[in-house]
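Q: Could you fold this chain for me?
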Amino acid sequence: MELQDYLRILRKRGWIILLVAILAAGSAVGLSKLQTPLYKASIKLSVEPARLDWGLSNTVKDILRNYVLRLKTHTMAQKVIDRAQLDMNTYAFLEKVEVSSDASNFSIQIDAKDPDPRVAMLIAQTMAEIFVEEREAWNQQQDQRDRIAVTIVDDVRDAPLFRPKPLTNGLAGLILGALVGGIIVFFLEWLEAGTLRTSEDVERVVGLAVLGTIPLEGTASGRRRSPFLRRA
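A: Sure. Below is the predicted structure, expressed as structure tokens.
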């Protein structure tokens, strides 16, 4: 297809792409506003070996996964619930918490999500404090050279909105709607692919020059015409 063909399609059916994109964006924004707001609080723990030893450093990298496992247990969840006096069971608690580790900088991140930002902050901060206390108690039983210190990098300061995000969802809906609209237009054009619309289409298909056109019966003069053909 040539550029003029694309321009013709956009003039004829561009409104379909625009309409579907607007409807999709509006639906995405509307659904976002119906969702319950969810806030996320995050806190990081630093895991440091007692000495800068290659073997101990590699041990710390391996033990990070074990620390993540310990944090995501019902036992830890119950300790946090009891200390923070939260009105939930351990199953609901663990659904709100995500724990991840980063071996490149010896850190663990705790993310807590809740409809109440204060609860999210309380969960993250309390869990971090309890884990640090447990590691400190463990270190007291180890040789000073083999200790692994776990400290809070920075206390929880806020719990920004995690979802919904109407602007982001609306933009995503707009793009997706435009793609769907484009597919619809493509399908409609494919259905009419065999229709000869202009004299240029006739010349290209049959290989004959068009000398003129004859108005079809029942149509306004000059609007739709049957072409005269001449052999080139």
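A (continued): The CA atoms of residues 39 and 116 lie 7 Å apart.
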